[in-house]
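Appendix B. Chain record.
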Amino acid sequence: MQKRTYLTITPDNKKDALRAAGRLADGNYALEYDRSEKLWFAKPDADLEKVKPWLPENTVSQLNQTTTDNLTPAEEFAQVLKDAGFILPNNSLPEMDGKRHRVAT
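Structure tokens predicted for this chain:
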């Protein structure tokens, strides 16, 4: 089996990627979907210049973003609550016990 070049194609830009990749000399599509990996890949004879925008090194995925604050889950949740307009008592962290708690807005 030849090495596959996996791409970061989302359902939103699938048509654009397929159109950009075009077809191979034999008339088949240059891209194919790997059902086991659930990823699109460029076939070995495909022109990678045409699919350059979808190469993993050229895309930014929200799943791969990291936080630089190194917050604990409670601190991160407190920040989300504050950003949403909630006022935590005494600027404390939320109580993470799985129960409902009331806070001011």
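Further analysis of this model is presented in Appendix C.
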